[in-house]
Amino acid sequence: MKKFIILFLSCFGLYAQSYPDFKPMRFDENYSVLQKDTTKNNWYKSMKYIPLSSSGETYLSFGGEIRYQYFYAKNEKWGDDPIDNDGYILNRFLLHADFHASKYFRAFVQLQSSNASGRIDPSPVENDPLELHQGFIDVNILSDKNSQLLFRAGRQELSYGSQRLVAVRDGPNNRQSFDGVKAIASFGNYRADAFYSHYVVAQDGIFDDYSNQKRQFWGSYFVINKIPAIKNLDLYYLGYERANANFDDAAGKELRHSVGTRIWGKYDNWRYDAEAVYQFGDVDTKDIKAWTVSLNTGYRITSVVLHPEIGFKVEVISGDKTKGDNSLGTFNPLFPRGAYFGLASVIGPSNLVDFHPSLNLELAKNLEWVIDYDMFWRYSSQDGIYGPNTAMIYPGDATDEKEIGKQLESEIIYQPNQYLYFRVEATWFQAGDFLKASSAGKNMFFTGVTMQVKF
């Protein structure tokens, strides 16, 4: 097995120059360009582009990913979880097949296997041995250089904007998907998506993930690029319904509507990403009135050694202000990226005020060192704190203190090419007054190593 892996990696070193870049969502990749590639065939090229017609427009492509991670946590959940002195190993395997019949029809199938070894009571997000992660067909009504009209049906990943509300959830071991239909239209600098779906619930068996009819998700997302002054603009509406919601001050059927906008882009060495969302609807008999605003910006100094990028992020995310009244102010992040506030992923974006400075250093070519410092407070002392999936961590009635804690994170990332990825990370979370009153209140330490191969 070790010899196979070494041979596998060495082959990537030989062929890592002339193929399309991998995309976060693998179905966005296009290997039809290899039809005109006159270089000598090798095993990798033969796997990425297998012509099935004399014209070459009907073809099959294969790809995948192998990821291994080791994690160790001390005082997990601030001392309230069982002690694990040895740590645990997570591995994830993704394998897909992509069939194209001309530019008007395609079928995409992806299998996923996520396994946890040594983990105490792993969740299905960590341990899901074998599942159909994606399986959909595309019918492309219109396709040319500047225009597209496409209809998609089946199990699929969804990802929009900065992945604050809709993400593939790549950080955790098991990526998330949806069963639904989707329409995509793009014309020049404009793109519009509309979709309706049911969330796919992960289970810890084989081929037993299921489409949850009690968790419906729909919406529309518009993107306008190349706008003078602001560069790029997103406008969106997202609808969400689930049968059994559970917040600190409300439980029952939830119908929630989210309307939002995002402005993002780059100016020279500056980058910026600002977003605002308002939510309304109801949970049981309570009216939803929730919101969030965020700003994520950074500046890279290219004139000095290590090219440091100084970043700053701030978010204000509403919580419920008055317990026992007829309204609910708790923000629901819907389906966000798992590692929302760092790779340790201990707090989710609900009832929160977050200040997040960072420093990114280029130690060498393809080698970077990132340092993040997060400060967390509850937005409302009447509401608790939640995980990334809105599951409550601790209710808010133990204390009026708002300080949740401070988190220092450091990671070194080495990516020699698009095929290989290595990361070493460590996180220290200092419990604040709220956690000391609501939990064992111990400081948390988290460290891990990640190795990943894509093909």
Keywords:
56% strand; mainly beta; 455 residues; globular
Question: What does this entry look like structurally?
Answer:
With 455 residues, the protein is mainly beta. It has one domain: Porin (Beta Barrel), CATH 2.40.160.100. Helices cover 5% and strands 56% of the residues. It has three helices and 22 strands. The strands form two sheets. The chain has an 18-stranded antiparallel barrel.
Rg from alpha-carbon coordinates: 23 Å
Helix content: under 10%
Element order, helices and strands? HHEEEEEEEEEEEEEEEEEEEEEHE
Shape: globular
Q: What's the CATH topology name?
A: Porin
Structural class: mainly beta
What's this model, at a glance?
The protein is built from 3 helices and 22 strands.
Outline the fold blueprint.
Layout: H1 2-14, H2 43-48, E1 50-51, E2 58-74, E3 88-101, E4 105-117, E5 128-143, E6 147-156, E7 178-187, E8 190-201, E9 210-227, E10 231-247, E11 250-267, E12 270-283, E13 286-300, E14 309-317, E15 327-328, E16 352-364, E17 367-377, E18 385-386, E19 392-394, E20 403-417, E21 420-431, H3 433-438, E22 444-454
Parallel strand pairs: 13-15
Antiparallel strand pairs: 1-2, 2-3, 2-22, 3-4, 4-5, 5-6, 6-7, 7-8, 8-9, 9-10, 10-11, 11-12, 12-13, 13-14, 14-16, 16-17, 17-20, 18-19, 20-21, 21-22
